[in-house]
Amino acid sequence: MMFKMPIVDLMKEGDKLAESGKRVSVLWQEPESLVFLARGREYRSEFHINPSDEMMYMVKGQMNLHYRTPEGKEEIAVLSQGSVIYTPSGIPHSPRFPPDAYLLVQERKRKPEEIDRFQWFCPSCDAFLHEESCHVADYKADPVSKAYQRFFDSEEFRTCKSCGTVMPKP
């Protein structure tokens, strides 16, 4: 077996990603390491709870990383181009950046017993709306898009039990 140490031109990979229309390009996925380049979404509202630590590097553009404190308060960390941020496992976070921006993410590949969670909160009163969960065996399957589809396809999931607001589809 030949030993490989991949070298990736992040700007070229980002341009290929944009041309393809896809959101994620997995650069490598090994038992102890997962690295992917993500392109922003026009709309993002969920908070991802990752069972592994994450390092995010803003390759191009700017990102507002929404996150929830242990007390449940929503905060925003602004990550400018060329900046890096560490997000510990278990912190609900929502990377929000435009489709022409690129983010490099490094985390650990999931262990068989680990579950990723995606949570939504009411845009009017901030009450909890819904949670999707899944085991992410292969990040190439784009679990965020699948969780989004399940959530937005259900008006029941998008309806706040506290104030009655229905989160609109993007």
Automatic annotation (TrEMBL):
Family matches, as SUPFAM superfamilies: RmlC-like cupins
UniProtKB keywords: Dioxygenase, Iron, Metal-binding, Oxidoreductase, Pyridine nucleotide biosynthesis
Co-factor(s): Fe(2+)
Organism: Pigmentiphaga humi
GO MF terms held by the record: 3-hydroxyanthranilate 3,4-dioxygenase activity; iron ion binding
Protein name: 3-hydroxyanthranilate 3,4-dioxygenase
Gene Ontology cellular-component terms listed: cytoplasm
Top-level EC class: oxidoreductase
Single Gene Ontology BP annotation: quinolinate metabolic process
